[in-house]
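Deviations from the work plan: none for this task. Representative record:
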Amino acid sequence: SQQGEEDPQALSIQEGENATMNCSYKTSINNLQWYRQNSGRGLVHLILIRSNEREKHSGRLRVTLDTSKKSSSLLITASRAADTASYFCATDLLFPNSGGSNYKLTFGKGTLLTVNP
Amino acid sequence: GAVVSQHPSRVICKSGTSVKIECRSLDFQATTMFWYRQFPKQSLMLMATSNEGSKATYEQGVEKDKFLINHASLTLSTLTVTSAHPEDSSFYICSASGTSGGEGETQYFGPGTRLLVL
């Protein structure tokens, strides 16, 4: 099953409004990251929050993390039409491999955000 | 920020042929590269992780003989889809990180390769 589950699956708002997306996960994590993906393109890293942090800001982005509830939220304030994209949360877990050890990301299903001008 | 490129961006091939996708880190040394597959309107699914000079680690359910991964240098990893079939049609995305397991390491993603198998 998916480690990260975002809700809502789709969100449509007007320009200038705030958009809030939530992510839940099942197992313990080291960090949680949020990514953005424009249609048919690669992912852009937005923000990383460590497991010992509760809130983080970056420009118009605000991320919270509640490890007791195993959930995170991404808030985009004063949205713009250019913010239209899919947003994914991803949790990273340490795992051993033949080359040593790695942190691998497990992505949620994503939230499709549409900001109408 | 760090830049990762993929080539080709789009490929159409006949069923039964093999397709090679390249992933390059342009301005940093990528000790670890990841390959993901994304079906339409779905999330990214990790296929395999490769460390430079080591064998790739494949996720459960991913056939290593079908999806050959080579990470021969610190700036290049390749994914070869052998004997491609229509069900292999998907969006393949690579990512690269600069260390092999540092806490909070950010993965930098390539723009993706759209594969269509006829």
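Confidence is low (pLDDT under 50) at residues 100-104 of chain B.
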